[in-house]
Amino acid sequence: MIKELVPKASLARVVLGRNGRSRGYALATFSSRDLAQTTKDALEGSEIDGRELRVKFDEGIPKKKGRTNNAKANANANANPDSYSFTGTSLHVTNLDFGTTNETLVDFFADSIGAEIRMNSKGMSRGWGLVTFASAEQCNTGLEFVNGGVELDGRLLGAKLDVRN
Question: Which of 62, 70, 106, 111 is the most exposed place for a label (fewest CB within 10 A)?
C-alpha cells in the first residue's frame, strides 16, 4: 500500500517492529530532494483509513550533547536483538563496487524487497547499502549467504544485521 502512495519513490517501506507489526510510520527514498518535497506537499494532511498523515523529512537520530561515536558500543548494539531499533529484517552490506546500483543489489538478494545504496553529498556511492527483507528468516538467509564468501561486481561482500531500520 505504501508504494501506491509514493509511486515515484525508489524505495518505500512500512517500518516493522520486532513483533512484525507496523511501528506506525513508513520511510521513502527519492532520487532528488525536489521530488521528495513535491510528494511531501501532496501527501501532507491526506488520510489513510481515517488517520491523517503527517509527512516530514527524515533527519536521523539527533546527537545528544556529551555523546561520542563509540564504534565498540555500536558493534555491540548490532548483536542485541533487544535493542529498540532492531527488527532483524535488514542487512548492512559493505564493500560494494561504486558502480553497483540499488536494482543490482535487489536482484542479487533473491528474497529482498528493497535496497538502498548510500550516497555521499555529491551523489556518489559510499560503498555500502541496506537491503530489506520481508522477514527475519529471509534476512538471516541473506546474511549467511554473504558471510559464506560471495562476490558482487568483482568485490567480496561483507554484511551484518542492521539495527537502525
Answer: 62
Q: Specify the pTM.
A: 0.52
Domain count, the chain: 2
CATH number of the domain where residue 46 is located: 3.30.70.330
* Residues paired with 160 in a beta bridge: 92
Q: In this structure, is residue 71 part of a structural domain?
A: no
The 10s digit of each residue's pLDDT in 83-133 is: 444 567 889 999 999 999 999 999 999 889 989 999 888 888 999 999 999
* Domain around 21: 2-52
